[in-house]
Design a protein that fits this description.
Blueprint lengths: L12 H28 L5 H28 L11 H13 L3 H10 L2 H4 L7 E6 L11 E7 L2 E7 L17 H11 L1
Antiparallel strand pairs: 1-2, 2-3
Length: about 180
């Protein structure tokens, strides 16, 4: 990542946070080192002091991304722990009645809980339908899972609910390998 043409110009918000926090925490790292040396009687070298700075910068960047995702992805937020017997009945009915990919797309868009149920807790889940990724790639859904490490993204591709995905011998059919390749792409 390159900086902009001006000395205080940053490519993105994260770089700006990293630089500002490193400047802020370096004096604190010195105080931390002095304190440890005084209290524990052991020397604190430059690597340990720099590790103190890196850990605090990492935590600040993670907090920034949590807050940013809450702002920018809020409209796509999905609950993961409210599956009722009525919802399960609706899913069963939708699977029985669906004849096209679009039928399931409609149902899952209205009931996104089924797309994130397997993810568990975390700090938030977001389901984004039909998000373009460049000029050619449009997955059925992008799912973001917020954890302490940041956002983890999952792609979901839907195919016909009536298709046979495996041969009688258990080998994947072309429709399945095509869907997997779409996700990999």
């Amino acid at each position: 990542m390159e900086r902009g043409s001006e000395p205080n110009e940053f490519i993105d918000d994260q770089e700006q946070i990293e630089v500002a926090d490193a400047e802020y925490y370096r004096p604190q790292a010195e105080s931390y080192g002095d304190y440890i040396e005084f209290e524990e009687g052991r020397p604190v070298g430059p690597q340990e002091r720099e590790s103190f700075v890196r850990n605090h910068v990492r935590d600040t960047v993670a907090l920034y991304h949590h807050q940013r995702s809450d702002r920018e992805l809020n409209q796509y937020q999905a609950s993961w722990d409210d599956i009722t017997s009525e919802l399960l009945d609706n899913l069963s009915h939708a699977l029985e009645q669906a004849t096209r990919e679009e039928d399931m797309q409609r149902f899952l868009s209205e009931n996104s809980i089924f797309l994130i149920q397997h993810l568990g807790g975390g700090h938030g889940h977001y389901v984004i339908p039909k998000q373009e990724l460049g000029a050619e790639l449009v997955p059925a859904y992008l799912i973001a899972e917020m954890s302490s490490f940041g956002l983890e993204w999952h792609g979901v591709e839907l195919e016909s609910p009536l298709a046979d995905y495996f041969t009688l011998a258990g080998q994947p059919r072309s429709i399945l390998t095509h869907a997997v390749q779409q996700i990999l792409d």
